[in-house]
Records
---
Amino acid sequence: MERDDRIRITKLRELIRDVPDFPKPGIIFKDITPLLGDPAGLSLAVEYLTQPFRHTHIDRVVGAESRGFIFGTAVARNLSAGFVPVRKPGKLPCEKAAVEYELEYGTDRVEMHMDAVRPGHRVLIIDDLLATGGTMAGCCELVASRGAEIVGIAVLIELAFLNGRSKLGEYPVHSILRFDSES
């Protein structure tokens, strides 16, 4: 990584606020709202999410609810691709595919319109955070079930100490900010 990139990555990291004990005691929440409020930081984050895929044909960018929508639509625009929202249950009005996935304590479910991706589509999946990998694995399962090819996964933040990549099989994962421990 070049010196200028290291400086920019450090700036992005400084725009992430740690919020202790949210949403429950013992968790340090990585709050991206200061980054979203900083025009240069937001632009830089979107550019770093886009860069690895700029010379790859992408038909659809899939964004996981809800912060994946923020970055996903911008990356889709940069790549001249369509955008597909993956939502929590009950949010999509038309025929949908759904997948239930494991969480640390229980299960959750995500949905996508049946006609959002088709066989042969080349798909990039975007979210703000990769933690335990459950949501991203659910998104991958949804996209793959429709016959589309997952070209890659891109996230702003990876909490590597939670080993979320292990749930994503062989899909290439690109993360901008990697945290190897909770602090």
---
Amino acid sequence: MTPPLRIIGTAVVAGWIAGCATVGPSFRSPAAPAAHEYTRTALPASTARAPGALGGAQTFVTVPGVERDWWRAFGSAKLDRLIARAERDSPTLAAAMATLREARQLYAAQAGSTLYPSVDTKLGVTREEINGASMGQPRIPQSTFTLYNAAIGVSYDFDLFGGNRRALEALAAQADYQACLLAGARLTLAANVATTAFVEAQLAAQIDATRAILAAERRQLEIARRGERLGTASRADVLALQTEVDQTRAGLPPLRNRLEQSAHLLAVLAGHAPGTEDIPVFVMTDFTLPARLPLVVPSEVVRVRPDVQAATALLHAATAQYGVAVSNLYPHINLSASLGTAALTSGALFGPGSAIWSLAGGLAQPLFNAGLKAGARAAQASMQAVGASYRQTVLQALREVADALRQVDNDARVLRREAAAVDSARQTLVLVRRQYAIGAASYLQWLDADRQLQQIRLNLIAARAAKLADSAALYQAMGGGVLPGSR
């Protein structure tokens, strides 16, 4: 190896070794939260049980993490296929994946130009004419010649204090951040598809119940009109029943509108136009309630939730950027060398005596630049601000888990009470039917008892849908199984 290239090679090795003395703080992942429980009062081992569909008790089971395909716990093949389709076709996920690829390529590009010396080659031919008079030597005759040259140049930024490596570290952390955003987008997409499917099923069931109520009210109205003609019912009774019919009928269009909006949303979440025909339609019987619900301890939740890991990556990037700012206060060394040949004829270009080489080195040490110190202080303040944002993200994550756990428990109690109310209304209807059979109750009383049962069923349908949505929210709050390992 020639002297200049040997010197550059030695500098490269020394630069890699110098990375061990990188200035600025080295990043360490923040400690896990000290909290051992999510709520002030302990959760029950299982939720309240209610009779009927989706009324089973749910048991909280402590696990290290949530399974990747957590939505399969709802037992709906239609939901499984739609979420798989959404993960394949969603523009939101496509954009997040492209952004992640961009971040990784930016890191690779910077690493290629930072960690290794740059090597360039040059080939040239120059035609020149020399006039002695122009140089103050009139006796030298005018001459014309051709100069051939070839050279290889090498330059290297001697990263003595690790500023370049800190910049690479920041880019790597930014790529991790984008990976966490992608994981979070996947989790949010799956949760939105599941929740929208539950809402669609709820609305379809409520529309059916409302139609049953409307049919009962219309029968009551017809009986009242016949009674008015026979003199056994007043005009006020007819108008009151007509008002109820009109109000119930007016409640159907908003329900249909919300149902259609849910169908449109499902199509868009799956990456298709709202008018797509092959988007499945969901009903309540498509789902089963997960019998076991995951409970990830707080110290593990912060490790698997994408938003907390994204905040960690931002803190890592800010810490590395602070190191870059600190390194700017120290000397910078740049080395360059070239090795080549030059000759008057192309045949002699690589012959004996044609070799030429050069070696240059430069050192820059800031002597007075108040802006550099201010920049370091600004980077430090930015790191502290990102650290505070990280702590807020952790607190928000713990709150979301606590809310989801309490929602699951409390809505189970609501479902049990609504089921009890429906059971009481059903028993009342049976009793009135028996009384009607023996002439102790009127047909209007029978229809009124049936209408009340259908109205209470509306609340029961909403309570069942809430239980499904609560379970999905808990899976999402626990991290949804997208980290670790999915990046």
